Amino acid sequence: AQRVTQPEKLLSVFKGAPVELKCNYSYSGSPELFWYVQYSRQRLQLLLRHISRESIKGFTADLNKGETSFHLKKPFAQEEDSAMYYCALLFGNEKLTFGTGTRLTIIP
Amino acid sequence: EAGVAQSPRYKIIEKRQSVAFWCNPISGHATLYWYQQILGQGPKLLIQFQNNGVVDDSQLPKDRFSAERLKGVDSTLKIQPAKLEDSAVYLCASRLNSGANVLTFGAGSRLTVL
User: Fold this and answer.
1) SS3 B85
2) Are A72 and A25 in contact (CB under 8 A)?
3) How many A/B residue pairs have CB atoms within 8 Å?
């Protein structure tokens, strides 16, 4: 079955330190993966997707098919990065399944 | 462009009562999703529409939940009768059928069942 695993429910990082939010997936087909973010009192919104291979707000994520991972990284954390982050897998009839999320807190 | 609209934003009911949530997707978005997000969990897909047809409702508890999108535009999700475990945020999202597979989410409807 298709599954997305985010092993860390909570992650605290000092401002200026590197950030890595882990995401692993299980899917037998060709995956399409996304990171969605929810800032305090805001809607769930797309942060980035692996197809575009872009850097958004300093974040990048590389799809590693061998390790079935799609970890989110940023070299230097900023206070405004504090939010809830969800990894998501698109499969089948455009069904999007989410991980349980990681709450990232940046310590000033 | 206008975003995905949802109402009501908050609803408190007693168990065994009924409730309905409404969603108006972005104009032109053919695909509409309803997700349930229980506190501390990720969003879980309840039902997916393509225009006015159901694509997937495998995780919809059909004994108490129903949803429709009669004209292929706005949609209603109903719960009858509600249980305590239905307390959650109900998220609506929509997607264009062409281009990037990106979902746009509404603000959600927070349901509390007492």
Assistant:
1) helix
2) no
3) 52
Residue B105 touches chain A, beta carbons under 8 Å: yes
Tokens of B36: 């349930």
Separation between Cα atoms, residue B99 and residue B69, nearest integer Å = 23
Task: Output the six-digit token pair for B97.
Answer: 């059928």
pLDDT bucket at B75, cuts 50 / 70 / 90: very high
Q: In what order do the strands lie in the sheet with B5-7?
A: B5-7, B19-24, B75-79, B65-68
**B108 Cβ under 8 Å from any chain A Cβ:** yes
**By the 8 A CB rule, do A62 and A49 touch?**
no
Distances (CA, A) of A98 to A43, A86, A91: 15, 6, 11
Percent of chain B scoring above 90 in pLDDT: 81
- The answer to whether residues B111 and B9 touch, using CB atoms and an 8 Å cutoff, is no
CA quadruple A28, B37, B52, B18: dihedral sign: positive
Share of chain B above pLDDT 70, in %: 96
DSSP B38: -
